[in-house]
Automatic annotation (TrEMBL):
<protein>
    <submittedName>
        <fullName>tRNA-dihydrouridine synthase</fullName>
    </submittedName>
</protein>
<dbReference type="GO" id="GO:0017150">
    <property type="term" value="F:tRNA dihydrouridine synthase activity"/>
</dbReference>
<dbReference type="GO" id="GO:0050660">
    <property type="term" value="F:flavin adenine dinucleotide binding"/>
</dbReference>
<keyword id="KW-0560">Oxidoreductase</keyword>
<dbReference type="InterPro" id="IPR035587">
    <property type="entry name" value="DUS-like_FMN-bd"/>
</dbReference>
<comment type="function">
    <text>Catalyzes the synthesis of dihydrouridine, a modified base found in the D-loop of most tRNAs. Specifically modifies U47 in cytoplasmic tRNAs. Catalyzes the synthesis of dihydrouridine in some mRNAs, thereby affecting their translation.</text>
</comment>
<keyword id="KW-0819">tRNA processing</keyword>
<dbReference type="Pfam" id="PF01207">
    <property type="entry name" value="Dus"/>
</dbReference>
<dbReference type="GO" id="GO:0006397">
    <property type="term" value="P:mRNA processing"/>
</dbReference>
<feature type="compositionally biased region" description="Low complexity">
    <location>
        <begin position="260"/>
        <end position="278"/>
    </location>
</feature>
<keyword id="KW-0285">Flavoprotein</keyword>
<keyword id="KW-0507">mRNA processing</keyword>
<dbReference type="InterPro" id="IPR018517">
    <property type="entry name" value="tRNA_hU_synthase_CS"/>
</dbReference>
<feature type="domain" description="DUS-like FMN-binding">
    <location>
        <begin position="30"/>
        <end position="248"/>
    </location>
</feature>
<keyword id="KW-0288">FMN</keyword>
<dbReference type="InterPro" id="IPR013785">
    <property type="entry name" value="Aldolase_TIM"/>
</dbReference>
<feature type="region of interest" description="Disordered">
    <location>
        <begin position="260"/>
        <end position="279"/>
    </location>
</feature>
Amino acid sequence: MARPSNQESIHPLKLFDIAKNEKRLLYTSAPMVRYSKLAFRQTVHHYGTDLCWTPMILAKEFNRNKFARDSDFTISTAGPQPPTIVQFGANVPQELARASSLVAPFASGVDLNCGCPQSWACSSTLGAALMEKRELVRDMVIETRERLQQDGWDVGLEKDMNNPKGRSVSIKIRVHKDLRKTIDFITTLLAPCPTTSSRPVDFLTIHPRTRQTPSSAPINVEALSILTSTFGDQVPILLSGDVFTLDSLPFTSPIHTFTSSSSSSSSSSSPSQQQAPSDITALVQHDIPKLSGLMSARALLANPALFSGRNSCPWEAVEFFLNKTIKAPMPFKLVLHHISEMCSPGMGPDPRDRSALLNKQERAELMRCGDMIELIDFLEEKKPGGLERTI
C-alpha cells in the first residue's frame, strides 16, 4: 500500500457540501464484494460518482495478514485515485481502530458495515447482526475516531472538512422491522462523545430493508422518510437501495428533479422540457427533503455511467473500464463478469432503459473468452467501429 504520489485526500463532508452547493444529491458507489476493485472505482468516478467504497474488509484478518492487506485494498499511485471509503467488518473496537489506522494515509475515511445480511457474517456478529449491538457499535466508532486523532489525523467533522488531513468515520446500516429500534440505534450513535461533545460519526448510510428482506422486494420508502426527517438535520444521510436510474427514484427531493428518461446524456432538452414517464411518476410516494445522497450497487455494476445521467451503459464506459483493468489488474473471471454486466440490459423501469450492448447469444459467447486477448478481440468485433486504440 504505497502512498499515492502528489494526491491529497478529499474529505467526504466536503463532497457533501459541494453536491449541496450544486443543488444535487451526492452520488456514491456501494461496497460490493469482489466487484468494488480499483479499476471499477476509477471507472464509476470518471462517470460522475463522487465517493467510492471498497468491498467490506475483515478488520481482524487485515490487521494480521500482509497478504490480506495487499489483496483487499488496492490504490492508485499514479492516479486517478477516486475519493475512497474503506469499509470494514468488525466487532471489536480495537480491531476496527487498528485497521482504520493502517488505511488512513490512503483513504478519505473508514466505514463500519452494520448491514451485511449474509448468514456467515451475522453468525460471527458482523454486518446486520450489529444492529442488535448499538452500544458496541458506538464504542467501535468512538475508539476508531480517538485512534485516528492520536495518529495525527483530523477527525473534527465539519471543522476539518477542508483539511487535507481530515478523515471521516461512518457506518452503513439496515432497518429493524420495528422502526423504533432503528431510531433508538441511531439516537445512541449520534449522542455526543463525552470527550469532544460532537457526534461520533460523520455521516450515515441507510439501506431501508430489514436483514430478512430480499433485494427483490422494494425498499421501505416510508421508513427512509421517517428516519431522514428525524435525523437529517443532525447528520448527512445516504440512501442505499433501489437506485436504478436517476429518473426512477420512488421519492422526490428539493435537490433532485427528474431527468430525461432517454439513455443518452447528451440530450439538448431544457430542464423544463424533461419529464418522467407516467409509470415512473406513479412510483413517487414521498417527499424526502433531508436526504443528502444516493448509493448504488447493482445498477452501477450494470451501468458505470449511471450518475452521468445515462440509463444504460455506453460502449465508451466498457472501453474505459478495460483500460483501467489493464493498468490495475484483477482476476480475469471478475473482468468477464463486469463486462457481461455492462453489456446486459439496463435496470430502469422504462423500456427505453433496457437497451443492451450485446444480445443474449452474444453475451453467452462473451463468457467463453479465455483471456484478455480473446476478450478484447471479441469486443473489437462486436462494437460498431471497433474499440478505441488506447486499449
